[in-house]
Design goal:
The complex is a heterodimer of chains A (about 230) and B (about 350). By secondary structure, chain A is α/β, with parallel strands linked by helices. Chain A contains eight helices and ten strands. With about 350 residues, chain B is α+β, with helices and mostly antiparallel strands. Classes of the chains: A alpha/beta (about 230), B alpha+beta (about 350).
Chain lengths: ~230, ~350
């Protein structure tokens, strides 16, 4: 494992079995992501980028290979340990926002804190800079259905950052947004990366969005086909 | 809406349990109140008489006068009982002047003491019984009991001996039990002599069941009627099964509806225990809500019974059973939520997150 790499992936393979059919989603992926990097992973549908995202996030185990995230090799650990990884090391931002619909923005954030076992009482004070940067400080009492897509995504980013994760995983974070909101969210991610050194791994098929990353990795047919050296 | 419906569905068996227990206890409370209302200290009954009926008319009427001669007995009255054919109601034959002397007499709502039992077929009914009939009974109303048309000559406050009264000789003659009575009530010079008189009477009349009124009232409990206990247990079983089924179905639906939300929680790092605790917590609230709904519904069933059958099925409100039904509803709700909870905790977070 390289020094300073917060994500270390070696010969990662993932095979899905559907009935008698086996689909090889990842075919020997190798990747190093240094701490504090904003990495964009681009590729067409079926290229394996979402599978890579799910494995790095501990949502599914790899079939083989080595995947060390925040010091935990997700290939060797139990389901409970991967749950702990999601609770302590990584946070997700999804294309469809995935906020809990019956809760206010504040309670969505508090839920993440509660699950992570973090204190909830002063989260607004603790997250003041982030909430102001995201521009949602005045929208915390609103439910997702009362907010625009851009606002929902910013709440999702606030929720993801509330637990102070080592890695922020963003899966097509602008996929459901118009161009203005997309630009705003991408700028936010960029700002968060620059201001607080947040490590971000963003999956996208949008080349313009990918340009916001420090580095762009291209995937096709379950493999990384183009990988610039880390800065 | 689903949760509210589930709460109501859990509330129904809770109400059934509370209503059944309430009717059992209400019936006994009513019986105790009416026994106290006689004003006697000792009851003499045939040894083979059943607990819920007034007993068969098998005691020679001459015993009334003989027992009145026993030391410390101030007054003795004999009553005859004939089942009125509807639920537990019976016509009680009384010698009204003697009954009046022992009990203080009826409180008349309609009619008066001077005009009751003047002719064969005259009846006095209490307000509960009068309200239970359709149309409601008033002085002058006629009603058919024991294949005879009776005429109501008085409507009195409930709480003394029975719900329907006839003149003792008239009832004896009509039922072919002249010279026989079913119970004798004794009033003593002082209640302090009850134990001594009881002992004396048991020596004199070993073939009869003799109780102090307090003993009799103590015996008047649901525990004395085994069938009621079995029936209550059957209803509790139905309640548990219904609660379990309702909650299981409801929570299964909830898990399906919330697949994506469960996926979100798992992506946030929620453990299996956390997800299960949410499911059980909701089921627990359903159980508590169902109990509250059931308790509220039991007040409704009481009002309905009071409206339609106040004399036959008096329902008591039984707060001492509220913790029991809470445990029953909670237990069945939590048990019913286990399987849907297992489904929820086993959900694959990726599939759950892509669920539409």
């Amino acid at each position: 494992m390289n020094n300073g790499a917060i994500i270390h992936i070696r010969d990662l393979r993932k095979v899905y079995h559907t009935g008698k059919v086996s689909v090889e989603a990842l075919r020997g992926v190798n990747l190093e992501v240094p701490k504090g990097e904003f990495l964009s992973v681009v590729g067409p549908s079926g290229s394996g980028k979402s599978t890579l995202f799910h494995i790095v996030g501990g949502l599914t185990p790899p079939t083989s290979g080595e995947v060390v995230v925040g010091g935990i090799n997700v290939a060797d650990v139990s389901d409970a340990k991967r749950t702990e990884l999601r609770r302590t090391q990584v946070s997700f931002v999804f294309q469809k926002f995935n906020l809990l619909p019956n809760l206010s923005a504040r309670d969505n954030i508090r839920t993440a804190l509660h699950i992570a076992g973090r204190p909830m009482d002063h989260f607004e004070k603790d997250l003041r800079d982030v909430l102001e940067l995201l521009g949602i400080a005045s929208r915390l009492d609103h439910r997702p259905s009362e907010m625009s897509g851009g606002e929902q995504q910013r709440v999702a980013i606030a929720r993801a950052l509330a637990t102070k994760p080592a890695i922020l995983l963003a899966d097509e974070p602008t996929g459901n947004l118009d161009s203005a909101n997309s630009l705003a969210v991408l700028n936010l991610l960029r700002d968060l990366n620059k201001r607080i050194g947040q490590t971000i791994l963003m999956i996208t098929h949008n080349a313009e969005a990918a340009d916001f990353g420090d580095r762009i990795v291209h995937m096709r047919d379950g493999q990384i086909v183009e990988i610039p050296a880390a800065a | 809406m689903r949760t509210l419906l589930s709460v109501l569905l859990i509330g129904v068996p809770v109400m059934l349990i509370l209503t059944l227990v309430g009717v059992s206890q209400g019936f006994m409370q009513d019986s105790r109140q009416r026994t106290r209302g006689v004003g006697a200290d000792i009851i003499v009954r045939p040894s083979n008489s059943s607990f819920t009926s007034g007993g068969t008319s098998s005691i020679p009427e001459g015993y009334v006068a003989k027992l009145a001669e026993v030391p410390h007995v101030k007054q003795a009255i004999g009553v005859a009982t004939a089942l009125a054919g509807k639920l537990f109601n019976a016509i009680i034959g009384i010698d009204y002047p003697a009954f009046q002397q022992m009990s203080g007499g009826f409180t008349f709502i309609e009619g008066d003491a001077a005009h009751v039992f003047q002719q064969p077929g005259d009846l006095v009914v209490d307000t509960s019984y009068a309200a239970e009939q359709h149309p409601k009974l008033h002085v002058g109303s006629r009603l058919q009991i024991l294949n005879r048309t009776w005429r109501v000559t008085g409507v009195v406050e409930t709480g003394k001996l029975g719900h329907v009264f006839a003149s003792l000789p008239d009832l004896q003659k009509y039922t072919g039990t002249e010279g026989k009575i079913s119970q004798i009530y004794l009033k003593l010079d002082t209640p302090a002599n009850t134990d001594a008189v009881l002992a004396d009477l048991k020596n004199r009349l070993p073939e009869y069941s003799i109780f102090s009124v307090q003993e009799w009232i103590d015996l008047t409990s649901v525990d004395q009627i085994p069938a009621v206990g079995i029936f209550v247990n059957v209803i509790i079983g139905i309640g548990i099964f219904t609660g379990l089924f309702v909650v299981s179905l409801s929570m299964y639906m909830a898990v399906l509806q919330r697949t994506r939300e469960i996926g979100i929680l798992k992506s946030l790092g929620a453990t299996k225990g956390f997800v299960m605790s949410l499911i059980l917590c909701e089921a627990g609230f359903m159980g508590i809500g169902g109990t509250i709904a059931g308790i509220a519904l039991s007040f409704g069933s009481r009002a309905a019974l009071l409206q339609f059958v106040p004399a036959s099925l008096p329902q008591a409100i039984v707060p001492e059973w509220w913790p029991k039904v809470l445990l029953i509803a909670l237990g069945s709700a939590l048990l019913g939520a286990l399987y849907p909870g297992m489904i929820a905790v086993r959900q694959d977070p990726i599939e759950a997150l892509s669920y539409e």
